[in-house]
Amino acid sequence: MARQTNKLKARPRHLYRWKWIGIGPQARPLTGESIGHSKTDIIVELSKQNIHVRRIQRKGGSYSSGSIKSADIMIFSRQMATMINAGIPLLQALYVVAESLKKPSMVALLKQLADDVASGTSFSDALGHHPQHFDRLFIHLVQAGEQAGTLSSMLERNAVYKEKVESLKARVKKALWYPFTVLITGWGITLLLLIKVVPQFESMFQSFGAELPALTQLIVNLSVLAQQLWLPLLGILMTTVLVFKWLVRRSSALAYRLDKAILQLPVIGSIVNKAAVARFARTLATTFASGVPLVDGLDTAAGSSGNKVYEQAVRQVRQDVATGQQLHFSMRMTNCFPTLTVQMVSIGEEAGALATMLHRVAEYYEEEVDNAVDALTSLMEPLIIIILGILVGGIVVSMYLPIFDLGTVI
Asked: Can you give the residue ranges of the Type II secretion system protein GspF domain (predicted)?
């Protein structure tokens, strides 16, 4: 019976946007929109602001919290840290932050958190009801802050951590998507020329009644194939990508092999490798500095590495540390972490400054990733020009070759 009650409490209530017309202080007419569970909730909330509601109606459907991004959680963490640091009680801070947000899904989430806290649930337990938005690190930090009376500093630390991680993710995504974008752009322009431009020249060539040069004939044949097959090939390509993504999500073994293959790629593999080490070090440093036990911190860091190879390595490290092994020795045994990282962790353990050393490791590899992405971008820019020049220039030259030959004959 108790379990059923807890499930009912954890079940989110739907929120709706309400458009209202009312009278404010000094009999001023007011209109506006608010987000709440029901008409009664909106009327009560507005009455606290000395607004008498005359007409209210629901606008649109219900809002869920499914569209919440990591950046939204980061902003929420920083705002809550500011409120609590200013001496505002937790429950009131949740209501104030909820009113300041414009994203309905975040308002819905904060309303659920406020309801849980108002019913006597601790803040960390309330966050635990939403694991899809609040990771274990966030919950651990809040829990440690509640116990030590340093909730504002822990929330601020979490916001800084998320800023660093999101910045690192953005740089890695840039490194991964840049070459892919170059290939797609070149392929798209070439396909457009073959389908739309080359056929115009082909009709003109037929009027010449002469044999076309080999390069021109090749391009014309490719154009005919492109016009016939581009749509089926595009469908096959999109289906293949979707099926592959589905298989990666369903199969942990395939996801591991994919991440391992990415780590072995030239240039890109080095960037992903350094980014995984930086995220691991940043997460472990944050948890350890916040008083979270090392074994629990390793469990949290495993899931934050962003790579299945490193995730498996960190879980192996956790098992070794749980049996009494030193952290740096366990890391060395995985044959996964760079020598510099292992040496700095060893120094940190010996000096009793593990969190400091892990922070330095994270900063070092974050800077390495930043430099590598900048170098890759600088390298790819001239490469884009060369690739597009070869593709577009080759097609243009092949189209004008028959015209040059005709001019020679004349």
From this structure: 76-199, 280-402
